[in-house]
Amino acid sequence: MKQHRLVTITLMVLLLVAALAAPVLAAGTTEVRIAKFASDGKTVLNETTVDYHWLEANLPVQGDGVTRYYHQGPVFEGIWEDAHPDKPYDGWNPDEDVQMSMLVKADLGAVMGTDLRDICDYIGGAEEGDEIAVRSSDGWQSKRYPYEYIYDPDPRQGPAVLCWYSGNTSGPDAQEAQGQGYPDTGYDVGMRMVFFADTTTNPWGWHIFGNNDMKECWDKDYWNYGAQYPSAAGTSGKLVNEIWIYSQEEPPEPPIADFSVDIASGDAPLVVAFTDCSEGNPTSWSWTFGDGATSAERNPVHTYIIPGVFTASLTVTNAAGSDTAEFSIIVSGESPGVLHIVKYANDNATVLGERTVDYHWLAANLPVQGDGVTRYYHQGPVTEAAWKEVFPYQAYKPWDPNERIESAFLDLGAVKGTDLAEICELVGGANDGDLVTLVADGAALTLPYGMVYDPNPRQGPAVLCWYREGEGYLPDLLLAYFADNSTNLKAWHVFGNTDMQTCWSEAYWTYNGTLPSAASSSRDRVTEVRIESQEPPAPPVPSFSTNVTTGTPPLAVAFNDTSTGAPTAWSWDFGDGKTSTERNPVHVYAAPAVYPGIYTVTLTATNDVGTNITTVENCITVTAGYASFTANTTGGLPPLAVRFTDTSTNAPTSWAWDFGDGATSTDQNPVHTYTAVGTHPVTLTITGSFGSDTFVTTEPIDMIRVLVPGDIGTTTLRVAKVAKNGTVLNETTVDYHWLEENLPVQGDGVTKYYHQWWIFDENPAYPDPDEANRNSVFNGKGRFGAVKGTDIKDICDLVGGASEGDLIRLNSRDGYKTGLQYDWVYNPHPRQGPATLCWYNAGGGNDQGVGYPDTGYFPSMRLIFFADNSTNPWGLHIFGIYDAYLAWGTWEDATTGWSAKWVDAVVIEVDFYTSTPVANFTADVTTGDAPLTVQFTDASTGGPDSWSWDFGDGNTSTDRNTTHTYTAPGTYTANLTVENSAGSDSATATITVIEPGEPGETGTLTLHPGWNFVSTPKRLVNGANTFAIFKDVDTADHAVLLYDGITGWRSANLATPFRPLDGAWVYANETCSIPLALAADGPELPPEKDLAKGWNAIGFTGTDPRTAKETLLSLGDSWTTLIGFDAQDQEYGVSILRGASGRHGEERPMYPMRGYWLYMTDAETLGAVG
Fold it and tell me: Which residues 6+ apart lie within 8 Å of 139 measured at CB?
């Protein structure tokens, strides 16, 4: 049989869709600002903004979404008379029995919400004498309610609740619909202030805050009226977006700046996490890191990329003023790609500006040239031999004006870098007439101002490249010219020899030997950029830094001169009577007579032009180091009682404690109770014969943390092993104390661990195999801090361990579930590292907290993958996006999402990946004459590992795919049972074997040139009942095609039966006649054919035409459209539609030996006619 070409028949149905307009729903408020004001009514002591999701998740919920709450509205005379026709009018309605005053004005629905008391407590709470006010986005504002109305309400008033959910809208009599759902899903008036009154007053047992309740519970000044009528309904403000606490606290003093660092020295690049420890409630933070970088974050992370001593400074501000603190960071070691930039005065000696950076800094802080995809080229010397290879009959042109000699191109690759002009600006920039010199491997290249600042497009920007595709970041800086593509005939970016000739004056042309070579103007391993300016010299500007600013004696301080203007002489005064004339002296401060010793340092810098002086007051503080103390706990819920124990030495005689929340003590070993939520540094100052000494808890892990319930992590852990049927095989419950004391500890509380956040930029781009994208590491949500924890493997082993095929599931208290495969836990890839459940954090993370789960590490217990540090340029333990691909074979957008928090259960689900199989199989033929050979093919899913066939005639097989021959006529049920360790399943199919037909009448099937859609009117005689009858037809390499509405298209071979009710497509290159030997023992077999919903190819069974209505009678109303094909004209005929008359009428005939397309609206069985 010749090969086929797929025949595609496309039938299009046009659907008309009517668009219905939907009303636009109003939306409630979703966020609330909570603010606490000082006694002046202006100064904000504390504030935050939360949304209703946070309120629901973190604070106690009031209401159940079923119980309805009401406020009573005005009681008008008319409705009073309806309820009490014999009583004098009383608008206060003491019995709360005038029902319409509740239903019309203040049926507030079946609401849920948060008590205002809990909301206020989140920012420090209110005290007796304070007032609380509620404000709405529509301008409504409540009276300033006294403290007791919110914190100690009368039951007839009930809690003041900020409602953010309604489980049922208001009743049919309500004047205003409340809506249903959350504020942004239908609760249109939310968030709403509702008083959850008790049910004691009214006759129906409803929760009504009635007018008389308001009168009895509140002072007269707080009663609400609607015109002259009392109305408690008016106290229920809708669309609430602010809650204000008017406190009696005095406005704060100016803040006292202080901060800590997680590391103070190390090799470049050095990543330092800064943590604000300031006192006095600052409201803004301004950091300078000493290397030109700044930040306004409260707790930033900064990377120092070059060696040196840097003074980090924090200025904090609040409404009362500001304060500044400093600390020195020492960065040592060499960093690749370091570039020294210096600007000289016109004497070529005086330094006007100086800076040292590396490629990390350039990439992160200045505009990037190049995209890492576009390639750039420089043209080298064009030899005569190279020219003749391309132009054997043209005169030799060493300048190659059309850039045709590609063999002379130097391919720089797809590089990225920084414009040399941007680099020069770091030290004051160059001006017209200045020269810029690059030093590389000791060889200098000098460029005039215009070639750097105003380059011809055919030269393009002069770029110092630090990245190349395929290599990543380069160890050294490369000078390249990013020429345009206007010259090269292939539109390549080539800085050619003729470009150089056109763009530059002859003095700057470069050669390789005697041949012009633009490539020779490039430089590799650039280490210095010098600007030789025309500006005159000036006196030096003195400045310096120190490695430390405080410490105990003998205190060695390294002073580092950072003056500009090329001083030639230095004079230091250290404030303790000692001096030096060294440029960078080291001075040792001895013990002062009385502690603390505070010293002012002066530096005088001189050059040939003049002298300048700088003085830093209180520069160095020498402390005794005697003061110290311990605390019995560092965190917990308020009220938190902490016992402080003085451990100071040298016999102090008095103690002064500052607990960081405004409270103080002079006891030696005080106990202090914290009530204000927040982190509180503790200060102890001791005095004695030595003077005074102070110890301050500057490290976050040592501070006192007063928490809210939402800041408490999970403390206990259920560990279970569960069978596939749900049976618990083993389980235990432990807490984090037990894990720390009984199982190996992962992490040391010093080393920090990271997961990689989303990559939003191309510096470098996703998937960042080198983990060098700074933003995704340092500015994302994956800085988890210096953690300790327990390997999930060791936890699983508590209940018998896991095996291959098991799933290890971590459940979190917020409902989140994280599934880990066996190998991720038991055989982790080094770049994934151990899967660790962390229960301690020493700090250095982003919004992670510090301490144990119940003392400040609020996201704990937390899953973190302890990846190795082999990949990234910073030597950090980062589980990156590419690490996940290497370890798991999956592409993740970020790995931060795998760090589940609040884990409270580890469950081993046995055989999770082994599912019960689902049996299925196909048979290549299900009906035919005996002997009938059937090929059975397994199509089961779910990973069966055994197969059992029963062919229904007493024969069986255990092969997966098998062939069986039925020898006797009959109807057989073939059964396949598949099985694996999780269970078994069976599937069946019916096989019909027919007695071979005896020869009867004959017929002739005529094929026309092209495609023919044909069928056989009756069963064919045995031996002439397959598509072998078409073997002599010239099909022009087309196959005979069958279409089944269930299985789709398939090609027929010589052994495929040609059966009644099947429509077949046969291609003929010329007209021919096919004799048909019809069986004498009709009727047509098989007598029926299963049709699927949609299009089906069918044959006509009968030797005489019959109407479509009669032929398709067995299908009922499940068919809609019948289409035949005219082989002579090679086109489809007019369609026949069920129920139609006329041209498309169902009374039109169907003809023998033709095939038809039939559209079914439902699956049905077609019966043969005849």
Answer: none
d(CA 518, CA 510): 6
Q: Can you name the CATH fold of 921-994?
A: Immunoglobulin-like (2.60.40)
If pLDDT is split at 50, 70 and 90, which confidence band does 555 have?
Answer: confident
> Domain 259-331's class?
mainly beta
Whether 942 and 919 have beta carbons less than 8 Å apart is answered as no
Nearest alpha carbon to residue 248 among 35, 40, 34 = 40
SS3 readout for 771-826: CCCHHHHHCCCCEEEEEEEEEHHHHHHHHCCCCCCCEEEEEECCCCEEEEEHHHHH
E-state strands within 380-421: 409-413, 415-419
- Rounded distance between C-alpha atoms, residue 290 and residue 288, angstroms: 6
Q: What is the pLDDT of residue 998?
A: 62
Let me know: does 300 contact 845? Beta carbons within 8 Å. Answer: no
The CB density around residue 77, as the number of other CB atoms within 10 Å, is 10
Distance CA 139, CA 335 (A): 59
pTM of the model: 0.37
Q: Which of 1030, 1012, 1011 is nearest to 1020 (CA)?
A: 1030
| d(C-alpha 191, C-alpha 116), whole Å | 12
DSSP-derived letter for residue 1147 is T
CB atoms within 10 A of CB 482: 22
Q: Which architecture, in CATH terms, is 630-706? A: Sandwich (2.60)
E-strand stretches of 555-675? 555-561, 569-573, 579-580, 586-589, 597-606, 611-622, 629-631, 635-636, 640-646, 654-658, 664-665, 671-674
Residue 424's region, left for phi above 0, alpha for psi from -120 to 50, else beta, is: alpha
Q: Specify the CATH architecture of the domain 550-622.
A: Sandwich (2.60)
The CATH architecture of the domain made up of 31-246 is Alpha-Beta Complex (3.90)
3-state SS string for 556-589: EEEEEECCECCCCEEEEECCCCCEECCCCCEEEE
Q: What mean pLDDT is reported for the chain?
A: 88
Q: Which two tokens stand for residue 1093?
A: 């919903």
Q: Quick: pLDDT tens for 935-987.
A: 999 999 888 889 999 999 999 999 999 999 999 989 999 999 999 877 899 99
433: closest CA among 452, 456, 450? 450
Give the Cα separation of 1087 and 941 in Å (integer): 33
- If you count DSSP H runs as helices and E runs as strands, how many of each does the chain have, helices first? 17, 85
DSSP secondary structure code for residue 155 in this structure: T
Query: Which architecture characterizes domain 338-532 according to CATH?
Result: Alpha-Beta Complex (3.90)
Q: Considering only CA atoms, which of 421, 425, 408, 415 is closest in space to residue 516? A: 408
Question: d(Cα 798, Cα 738) in Å, to the nearest integer?
Answer: 12
Nearest residue to 640 (alpha-carbon basis) of 649, 648, 631: 631
Peptide bond into 767 cis (omega under 30): yes
| H helix runs in 191-268, sequence order | 211-217
